[in-house]
Design goal:
By secondary structure, the chain is α+β, with helices and mostly antiparallel strands. The chain has two domains: 37 residues; 181 residues, Glutaredoxin (3-Layer(aba) Sandwich). The strands form three sheets. Strands 1, 4, 5, 6, 9, 10 and 11 form a seven-stranded mixed beta sheet that branches. A two-stranded antiparallel ribbon has the order 2-3. Helix 2 packs parallel to helix 5. It is globular and about 45 Å long. The termini are far apart. Keywords: Copper, Disulfide bond, Membrane, Metal-binding, Transmembrane, Transmembrane helix. Belongs to the SCO1/2 family. It holds the Pfam family SCO1-SenC.
Length: 233
Amino acid sequence: MSKKSDTPYYVGLGIVILIFGYFAVTNVIDYIEKDKVVDSNRSVDRDPVADKFLVKFNKVPDFEFINQNGDTVTNETLLGKVYIVDFFFTTCPTICTPMSRNLSQVTDKLSKYDDYRSVSITIDPQNDTPAVLKEYADRYQANDTTWYFLTGDKAATYELVQKGFNSYVGESDDPAIRFEHSGNFALVDRDGYIRSRKDAQGNPIYVYSGITEQYSEAQLEEIMDDAETLLNK
């Protein structure tokens, strides 16, 4: 076959390639714009996910506590805010210090948002009065408009931990420890619902590790990224 007779064949092939390429690029752009490139089975070590891929769990039950300044704080107070919750006590000899240190880091990053709050609730209200919480808050240079340290009825607190956040709390048989609790942080959206991303296997994690332990790393970057997703919604 001569080069002259080959010309129509190559011209036709070029046109087909151009048309295919146009539709391929168009579909990719459309895919991105619709957030379809965000995999619902993201690893917890990856980038922040779109709000629609953050799993919504139960709504935080009603509560009423007193903060470090003696002011009443309720779940209604926090509606319209995105907040991160942990449970601790000021005389804790184990995980509370690293938890508070890590939450301080999270709070520093997210405090640029007017509608963000950190919420630390004591599981030892008998000792942790507002004055004691204020002293504890000062250790971390906590801004009392951004980071609430709360105390209240012990039975109501335990019920909130166990039923509201599906977490563990109890009294320890070791008198040096006194109380036991998890080292997790929970993320709550503006409407009062607990939210989380999924792990690499596609399972919702529900809470984020607030400390580095033997078999797990603290998930500070993950919870900060996901909080920002909710704050920017």
